[in-house]
Write a structure and sequence with these properties.
The protein is mainly alpha-helical and about 250 residues long. Helix content is about 65%, strand content about 0%.
Length: about 250
């Protein structure tokens, strides 16, 4: 039996999984619209990089993913009460981290084939791999995560330098101009969102655990299932969408 307040590593949090599932569905719809536009199947053409209707959605989707990641880290660490620094980076963490980092490499390779000029050098999975490492390190700060998260969100607006504009350095986020790439999720300011998710998760687990762990209605259970396979879905949905659209265009031609 675990320590009081601890959780089994295999425990599922259906409401958190369902929230992650919402992010997955929203992302899939967004990407399908992007693909339609990319292949010239949407009229009038959409400006995904400039139109606030699309850029606001993109910000909201990434924020929801990172918020869920922070909540998930709080849940994972609740199963390791009083853990030392080394214990916080346990085998379970490294296995999941390797999956995220490996998929980030595949995203870079795939985007380089499809978008040679604007390939993804530091997208959402790259950012998440770095931020997960930092979240585990900073988790013991607990209440201090709120102001630290706010500092992360504010820093890119306060500190900018041309040194950070290259692909080798822009991952930190202190750029003077946003790079021309298909996806860009630097550590700053996005670490702030994950830290807020971590802080919120720690508070909820201590005071309102049912908000994350309560059962979901039958209608929402597919979202919870989808949320448990978020990384697999993330890696597969675009090849399926793009392959399907290319096949449809070839048949139509």
């Amino acid at each position: 039996m675990g320590a009081p307040g601890s959780l089994a590593p295999s425990a599922r949090f259906d409401r958190l999984d369902a929230l992650r599932g919402v992010a997955i569905v929203w992302m899939a719809v967004f990407h399908f619209c992007f693909d339609l536009n990319h292949f010239g199947l949407w009229e009038p053409r959409q400006l995904f990089t400039r139109d606030p209707f699309w850029t606001t959605q993109r910000t909201a989707i990434v924020s929801l993913f990172l918020l869920c990641a922070g909540l998930g880290q709080a849940v994972a660490l609740q199963a390791l009460p009083g853990a030392t620094l080394r214990q916080r980076y346990d085998r379970r963490f490294w296995r999941r981290w390797a999956q995220v980092a490996g998929c980030a490499v595949l995203v870079s390779a795939g985007s380089a084939l499809m978008f040679p000029q604007t390939w993804i050098s530091f997208g959402v999975l790259h950012g998440m791999a770095v931020m997960l490492l930092l979240a585990r390190l900073l988790a013991p700060l607990r209440g201090w995560l709120w102001p630290l998260g706010a500092l992360c969100l504010a820093l890119p607006h306060l500190v900018q330098h041309a040194f950070f504009d290259s692909r080798l350095t822009n991952w930190l986020g202190l750029v003077t101009r946003k790079p021309f790439t298909e996806d860009f999720v630097p550590v700053l300011p996005w670490l702030g969102v994950m830290l807020w998710g971590l802080a919120a998760g720690q508070w909820l687990l201590q005071h309102r655990q049912a908000v994350l762990a309560g059962a979901v209605p039958a209608l929402l259970r597919p979202l919870a299932v989808l949320g448990r396979w978020s990384l697999s879905f993330y890696m597969l949905h675009q090849p399926v969408f793009i392959g399907g659209l290319m096949a449809w265009m070839a048949l139509r031609a």
